[in-house]
Amino acid sequence: MLFHVRMDVNLPPAMPPEQAEELKRTERELAQRLQHEGQWRHLWRIAGQYANVSIFDVESVDALHTLLTSLPLFPYMQIQIMPLCRHPSSVRDSDA
Ligand SMILES: O=C(O)CC1=CCC(=O)O1
């Protein structure tokens, strides 16, 4: 199942910089592992914002929930999810 996910990150201004850097480092490691594994298909920065749009390819809504809640930055993100299905006019298959 494909999902379009928008994540807006809001770290508390009072968070110590070392804690913020550690969260970002562990988030990056996990995000890159999930991209290599194929579950995190796209990861794009929204220009000018501390936010991203991503495409996830996971087994189920429960799997997406488990993945998103495992992200180190999860407690500091607003997340919007759009489930995707094939458009009848699309010339691509869902693996493209
Ligand atoms: O910087 C972000 O948008 C949050 C994030 C998601 C994956 C990652 O490495 O950082």
UniProtKB/TrEMBL annotation:
Reaction equations catalysed: (S)-muconolactone = (4,5-dihydro-5-oxofuran-2-yl)-acetate
InterPro entries: Dimeric_a/b-barrel, MLI_dom, Muconolactone_d_Isoase
Pathway info: Aromatic compound metabolism; beta-ketoadipate pathway; 5-oxo-4,5-dihydro-2-furylacetate from catechol: step 3/3
Keyword Isomerase: yes
One BP term from GO: beta-ketoadipate pathway
Entries under SUPFAM superfamilies matching the protein: Dimeric alpha+beta barrel
Key words, A-Z: Aromatic hydrocarbons catabolism, Isomerase
Pfam families attached to this UniProt entry: MIase
A GO molecular-function annotation: muconolactone delta-isomerase activity
Enzyme superclass (EC): isomerase
This enzyme's EC code(s): 5.3.3.4
Source organism, top-level taxon: Bacteria
Muconolactone isomerase domain mapped to chain residues: 1-89
Family of this protein: Belongs to the muconolactone Delta-isomerase family.
Self-association and partners: Homodecamer.
Protein name as catalogued: Muconolactone Delta-isomerase
Name of the gene: catC
